[in-house]
Design goal:
- The protein has a single domain, classed as Vaccinia Virus protein VP39 (Rossmann fold).
- The chain is built from eight helices and nine strands.
- It has a seven-stranded mixed β-sheet, sandwiched between helices. It has a two-stranded antiparallel sheet with strand order 6-9.
- The longest helix has 23 residues.
- The chain is globular.
Length: about 260
């Protein structure tokens, strides 16, 4: 016979037969939940903040312009979740890859007040130029975009940054019919091969505009191809933000 101690428990430490039978073990208390999306956002915030410091060293701006650009970046990140405005891989480098890259155009044409940006997309360089021009009396930036969702974003970006921009929802080739008044500079970034860009910009250039086209490392090949269709005398400016180039054109003439 097994001996039992006080309370009826076996001295062996085992519960009597049937004691606790069928009872489910108490579930372990859950640990704190980790919101991975929030953690990722915080990590991205930190990277973007560091990138901003680097970008503003490359292309310094006033406090007022910086504040406008901050509002623009916040809006872009909010819209990026539902509309692909920039390549996701470039999000950590929004300031250097996109903002500073666009701002350098202002230094190439410091006296320009009236700009036309063809194929503005996510706002580079058009919205950035509008933010930079906001403190210049009488300045204007025309943003031509053929995709309705992107045009809607551009209008909202101009609104929240209180910048002097006008958005035209139009095919790029129709821009001349929609842009009225003086244009000092016409720009484009990641839109089309150079010879096509010249064709888009030529009517504005005929009225006195200068062209500033942001191009990549293969600029020489694009210049060679463009020379088959156009008489051009390009001036090249090396980008401050990478291996790209800015093609400056003040005169173009169609061959043949």
């Amino acid at each position: 016979m097994k001996q039992r101690g006080p309370g009826g428990r076996s001295l062996s430490g085992k519960p009597p037969a049937g004691e606790g039978a069928g009872r489910r073990p108490e579930p372990a208390s859950p640990g704190p939940k980790i919101d991975k999306a929030s953690a990722n956002d915080q990590a991205l915030d930190s990277v973007i903040a560091a990138d901003k410091i680097a970008a503003l060293k490359l292309a310094p701006v006033s406090r007022e312009t910086e504040a406008r650009l901050d509002r623009y970046i916040a809006l872009l990140r909010a819209w990026q979740a539902k509309t692909n405005l920039v390549a996701p891989s470039t999000l950590p480098h929004l300031w250097t890859r996109h903002i500073a890259d666009s701002l350098q155009l202002v230094d190439i044409a410091p006296s320009a007040k009236h700009w036309a940006d063809l194929g503005s997309g996510g706002g580079f360089p058009g919205v950035v130029l509008a933010c930079a021009m906001a403190g210049t009396p009488g300045a204007s930036v025309h943003l031509v975009e053929r995709i309705a969702k992107k045009a809607a974003f551009l209008r909202e970006a101009i609104r929240v940054t209180t910048s002097p921009g006008v958005v035209h929802l139009a095919e790029i080739g129709d821009n001349v019919d929609r842009i009225t008044g003086l244009v000092d500079c016409v720009t484009a970034r990641a839109l089309a091969p150079l010879h096509q860009l010249i064709g888009f910009a030529e009517p504005l250039m005929r009225q006195g505009a200068k062209a500033l086209f942001l191009k990549g490392q293969d600029v020489e090949a694009e210049l060679t191809e463009a020379a088959k269709y156009w008489n051009i005398q390009p001036q090249l400016h090396q980008s401050r933000t990478g291996d790209g180039w800015i093609v400056e054109l003040t005169f173009v003439e169609r061959r043949g």
